[in-house]
């Protein structure tokens, strides 16, 4: 029996890429949707009009994929993200549970300091140059850091224009995932791709390490209480260049909302430190 003749159609994916599919004259829009991993969570548009699932397609048609982002997010939130415990922290090899009282901190007057990842020894103020000692009270109130631990200090004081960001903007994580195609001598354990986590965070059921961040501008930053599952960090399309995950904002928000429902601690504590005016 002769095989059915096929012809290409082209679909512009919601991530901006164009993808080609070989189909037959009897394949319908529904058949094409079943070829795609997003299933029935999107519509196909041609010449500005939505195509019916029963409609057949013509050779070389250029279609646009329009995704129901909320529906897609609901299906993927638990698959991509897992939840971070808020009240259990690892300190000195022991796991403790403690509710920390929020205190109001005051920033020193700005003097155009601009340092990035300067190493210092926590608990030893002499390891920090005197010109940065105005920040010692903030540093000393970073809980869960062991005296003698090597830490890295970044301070950026600069004029920020309206509607711009002082540092990197957009939703992102503090890891670019993994670096592929590395020379074998730079890989871990004899062939594994190296993964880099800025801040050296290790988090499973407890937290050890990570990044403390503070800003003089209230409501200018937001931290989401969830993390990407380990097996998803290196999956293509999940973590983009330099840790960009802005395309996953609906999934992240859903994951955090579910976390609030699961953990009374999250419901009852708003962790928002507002600095005094300079």
Oligomeric composition of the shown chains = single chain
Low-pLDDT parts are: 86-97, 185-193, 202-206, 264-278
Write the element-wise H/E pattern from the N-terminal end onward: EEHEEEHEEEEHEEEEEEHH
Task: Return the structural class.
Answer: alpha+beta
Radius of gyration: 25 Å
Overall outline? elongated
Number of strands: 15
- Strand residue content: 15-25%
Distance between the termini: 81 Å
Number of continuous helical runs: 5
Mean pLDDT, all residues? 75
Largest sheet: 5 strands, mixed
Helix content: 10-25%
Major sheet strand order:
2-1-5-3-4
What does it look like?
With 278 residues, the protein is an alpha+beta fold. It has 5 helices and 15 strands. The strands form 6 sheets. A 5-stranded mixed sheet has the order 2-1-5-3-4. Strand 3 and strand 4 form a beta hairpin. Helix 2 (69-80) packs across helix 4 (249-262). The longest helix is centred in the last third of the chain and has 14 residues, at 249-262. It is elongated, with a radius of gyration of 25 Å. The N and C termini lie far apart (81 Å).
Give the tags.
278 residues; 15% helix; disordered C terminus; two-stranded antiparallel ribbon; 5-stranded mixed beta sheet; elongated; alpha+beta
What is the fold's blueprint, element by element?
Blueprint: E1 6-12, E2 18-24, H1 29-35, E3 42-46, E4 49-50, E5 62-67, H2 69-80, E6 81-83, E7 88-91, E8 94-97, E9 114-121, H3 136-140, E10 150-156, E11 178-179, E12 194-195, E13 202-203, E14 207-208, E15 226-228, H4 249-262, H5 264-268
Helix pairs in contact: 2-4
